Request: fold
Amino acid sequence: MKNRLRDNERRHIHYVDHHIQKWLLVALVVMECALIALAMWALHGALSDLVEENMYRIHFSAQPDQLLRFLAEGVKILIGIGVVNLLALILADRIWAAYIGSILRKLDALIEDAQQLDFSERAMTRTHDVLDQALAWRAVEAGRMRKLRTCIGALPAALPQLPDERTQARNMLLKMHEAVASRAR
Reply:
């Protein structure tokens, strides 16, 4: 039988980013409305021309090219809509990639600073949930590093000779160990 994770222990991945996806969706809806209006206008013009050509005929003559002209106009419009949608998809992909890239560059800078043990505060103009979490982690790590520096600064330069001083140094080392162990939790 499989062990089932409780809901609060499950990994939750959110693929929705309302900051940018809202505007991409609005742009898509506006573009599709404009595209449909243009397609209807073009189709109306093509059909009006066909009707004008055949309006004043007295005798009906079956011309097979009329159906082909209807089909050709419809295919042109469908291909045009397809090309515009493909270009919009490529543009949305580039916008999304640039947005994600900007977040990852800031996150990489935070990680690079953390590798250099630089936990100093830096102002960020545009934030994201991932960056907020990274900044919160950096604040916790900065506090932990301050605690370690205080403990290291309180240690004697040489190993103490008296038992009381050794106990005091041992307690400081235990505090340092707790500060380091708190990171693993």
Summary: The CA atoms of residues 6 and 12 lie 12 Å apart. The chain has a mean pLDDT of 80. The two ends are 29 Å apart (CA to CA).
